[in-house]
Amino acid sequence: MSLSEASSDVVVVGGGIVGTAVAWRAVEAGLSVTLLDPSPGDGATHAAAGMLAPVSESWFGESALARLGIAGLAAWPRFAADLARATGIDVGLRETGTLVAAYDADDVAHLRRWLALHAELGLEPTELTGTQARRREPLLGHHVAGAAWVPGDHVADPRTTRAALSAALHAHPGAAVVRSAAVRLERDAGAVVGVHDDAGTLHRAGAVVLAAGWRSGELAAAPVRPVRGQTLRLDAPPGTAPEHVVRGRVQGRPVYVVPRPPGTGSGPGTTAEHREVVVGATSEEGPADRRPSAGGVFALLRDARALVPALDEAAFVEATLRARPATPDNLPLVGPSATPGLHLATGHHRGGVLLAPLTAEAVVAGLTGAALPPALSVADPDRFTPLLEGAS
Ligand SMILES: Cc1cc2nc3c(=O)[nH]c(=O)nc-3n(C[C@H](O)[C@H](O)[C@H](O)COP(=O)(O)OP(=O)(O)OC[C@H]3O[C@@H](n4cnc5c(N)ncnc54)[C@H](O)[C@@H]3O)c2cc1C
User: Which of 97, 173, 196, 232 maximizes the CB count within 10 A of its CB?
Assistant: First the structure.
């Protein structure tokens, strides 16, 4: 029995980058929205590097994900511009391309298989020698044997983006942010008509959007599991951070180095020229223990400095571990589900920052009865209908 009741057009469960993007686009579309989250922004979004990298992320068997990611990237410039107009906050979208580095001869062989796949898919990377790569990115280590240039893979700052979304919601009269956890869906004749929270309030709504990251499966039988990942944050003095995102393989291990613009450093002695640099990421199945592992931190630093040796000079600021929300086929769950009143915006695994703007457009289309963007057909939650029918 709930102690109190509230009502709105839409309740969004989860205030990560996906849930806040959905909530913001929904209030912009004229819907009243309640967003529920006991600690907004503290999920996978807090760890994410913010690479918008559908091409350099793609691998064999993932062409549907690559095409979805390319559509997701195309939605970013308008999203960033609209958010800057609404809040005055620059969300750090940098369209500067990505360098994919291969450290030794085996890594170069791996890179060439990846380039052959991209030629088949009609994608854009071009191979560079180590020398050509160092001309483009002078801080690249001298041992790096080869590389590819991906001009269309970019980066944004997930923490700043989520903070901007949060500011836009707080300023909007149609939005309410409630710091409590959803504990149970309210149902009426098989339809979802609201959510109970842990403070005893029933939030009634015409529609509920489940965007609770890897915990989405606790409220409905969404097939989402946690895949843990850790990133490191460094404070890089002038001359120690690369200009571009540098990612690649070092003796078979994937690693990336993501520089933010000057002025993003942190800690004592930081100047306007210091940059935040994000190094990532580990990936392991398992329970969502948030403690970074010593071995993970060691391996990330060792491999990052193999690609960019000048990072030795940077200060170590933070190691952060969170769980990505992964689905059985690595594609997200976006749009109306088979249960009336229940919409999904989850399961974005490695690409939730990349896909947040397109997901928000699609979910709002589903909420307002408009057609979903065609690129989202691969993310239809009904592909798991037998599982979702068990939603409780
Ligand atoms: C190490 C790492 C690096 C990454 N790098 C990138 C990258 O470079 N590019 C990219 O595109 N993606 C990246 N990702 C993936 C990306 O972070 C996720 O796909 C994305 O953050 C998912 O966003 P979300 O809003 O769905 O989930 P989350 O950010 O996890 O947010 C879920 C929210 O739901 C809330 N919640 C949970 N349960 C409840 C409940 N019962 N009631 C109310 N609220 C609840 C949580 O408090 C949380 O705030 C990375 C992820 C990790 C871990």
Answer: 232
